[in-house]
C-alpha cells in the first residue's frame, strides 16, 4: 500500500518538478534562438488568421523557417494562451511558458524509449531501474542543448515520432509505423535518414507488403500534411523546405569545412544533401552485409534487435559529417539512439565482468554529449558563430570516429556470435545474449 501511494504521489510530483525545471532553465537563455526568430513569428502569423502562411517568415533578409509544420500546431495553441493573457510579447515569460509546455514532449519521448526497452529486454523494467532509465533520456544534456540553447522545440517531438515508428515496426505494425515516420518527416526533414535503413530492414526480413505499406503510409502522411501549405503558398513552402538550403554556402564543422580551399568543396556546396542520403544508404548496406541477424518484418524479434538503433545512429551521424554546416544540436538524435542501444544490452549481467563491460558502454551515449559540447566550443571559439578549418577538421574526425567505433562494435557482435555458434553454444546468439521470446506484458 505504501508503494502504491508513493507512486500516486511521486509520479505526478516528479512530472511537475520536471516541467518546472524546464521553466527555470529557460530563464538562463538571454540571446535570441530559432524559437524567437522563426517559430514564434510563425505562430503569430497563424494567430492572425493565416495559419497556411507561416512560411512567409524571414530572418536577417532571406533566412526562412526551414522546419516542418507539425510542431506549429501545439506551439500555436500555447501562443494563443499567451496572447489571451497578454504576455506573448514578453521575451522571458513567453519562452518559459512554451518551454514548460513542450517539456511534455520530452517526457513522451522518454516514455517511448522506456517502452522500447520493455520490448527489447527479457522483462520490463520496474522500480528504481525504470526511473533511472527515464532519467537517461529525460535529463539528457543534449536535449537541453537543442531545445533551450538553439530553440529547436520540435526536436523531441520528431524523436518521439521516430521511436514510436520503430517500435511499431518491431511489433509488426508497418502501417502505423509509416504514419509515425510521416509525422516525424512533417516535424524535421532529417527524419528521412531513418526511413531508408528501416525500409531496408523490412526488405531484409522479406516483408514486401510491410515495406510497401510502411513507405506508402509515410509518403501519404507527408503529402497530406504539406498539401494545404502547398495550395495556399507553394512558392514559400518550396523555398523554406527545399530550395533555400541549396543556396547556402559551406559553413563548416563538417567534412566540407575541413577541406578548406580544395576544389572538392564545390561538390558539397551543390550536392551535400544527396551525399548525406547516399552515405546513409551505403553504411546501412555495409552493416546489413555482416549483421545478418538485423531485420524487421514478419519474424519475431531477434535477441540482439537493439543493434537496430546503432544502425540508425550511424545513418543519423551522416548528417553532421556531410552537411554543409554543422550545428551542435545535431548530436541529440545520436544520443537518444545510442542510449537505447546501450540500455538494451543489459540482458545478461550475471557476472561482475559483464556488469563492468556494460557500464563501460555508457561511453556510447556520452560520446554524443562530448561531440555536442565540443562542437559548441568550436563554433564559438572565435567569438562568433563561425567555423575555422581547424575546428572543422576536429569535428570531422570526431564524427567519423564515432561511426567507426559503432561499426566496429556491430562487427564484433556479429563475429563473436558466429564464433560461439561454431563452438556449440547455439543458445547464445546476437551479442552474447540468450534467445528470448517477446514479453507478454509489453505495452502495445
Largest sheet: 2 strands, antiparallel
Mean pLDDT: 89
- Tally of distinct domains: 1
**For the largest beta sheet, what order do the strands appear in spatially?**
1-2
Q: What is the general shape? A: globular
Helix content: 55-70%
Strand content: under 5%
CA distance, first residue to last residue: 28 Å
Summary tags:
444 residues; mainly alpha; two-stranded antiparallel sheet; two-stranded antiparallel ribbon; 17 helices; 4 strands; 2% strand; globular; disordered C terminus
Describe the structure.
The chain has one domain (104-434). It is an all-alpha fold and 444 residues long. The chain has 17 helices and four strands. Strands 1-2 form a two-stranded antiparallel sheet. Strands 3-4 form a two-stranded antiparallel sheet. The longest helix has 39 residues, at 208-246. It starts with a helix and ends in a 10-residue tail after the last strand. Residues 423-444 have low confidence and may be disordered. Helix 1 packs across helix 4 (91-120), helix 4 runs parallel beside helix 14 and helix 9 (192-204) runs antiparallel to helix 10. A hairpin with a 3-residue loop joins strand 1 (58-59) and strand 2.
Please describe the topology of this protein.
Layout lengths: L1 H25 L7 H14 L10 E2 L3 E2 L7 H13 L6 H30 L6 H12 L2 H9 L5 H16 L3 H12 L6 H13 L3 H39 L8 H4 L6 H26 L16 H16 L9 H13 L7 H9 L2 H17 L9 H34 L5 E2 L3 E2 L10
Antiparallel strand pairs: 1-2, 3-4
State the gist of this model.
By secondary structure, this protein is mainly α. It has 17 helices and 4 strands. The strands form 2 sheets. Strands 1-2 form a two-stranded antiparallel ribbon.
